[in-house]
Amino acid sequence: MRHIVAGRLDVSGARWGLHGADAVLKLRTIVANGIFTDYWHHHLAEEHQRVDHARGQHEYDLAA
Q1: What is the 3-state secondary structure (H, E, C) of the chain?
Q2: Domain ranges, residue 6
Q3: DSSP, res 59
């Protein structure tokens, strides 16, 4: 885990907020564990669900 943190956050002159640093560390951990593909499919499904519900798409039927 140490190499994941140091590899990204020890960049000279870099400024990190808590939210951005947390996101980068989570993503680098996912990649280091070799589960990026599974994570990405899950992420896309969650985003699709979020967008569809936000627009109310589930309430309409096709009229053709």
Answers
A1: CHHHHHHHHCCCCCCCCHHHHHHHHHHHHHHHCCCHHHHHHHHHHHHHHHHHHHHCHHHCCCCC
A2: 2-59
A3: G
> pLDDT tens digits, the chain, 64 residues: what are they?
566 666 655 666 667 788 888 888 898 899 999 999 999 999 999 998 888 765 655 566 666 6
Domain count, the chain: 1
Is 64 part of a structural domain of the chain? no
Would you say residue 44 lies in a domain?
yes
Which one, of 49, 32, 31, lies nearest residue 40 by Cα? Answer: 31
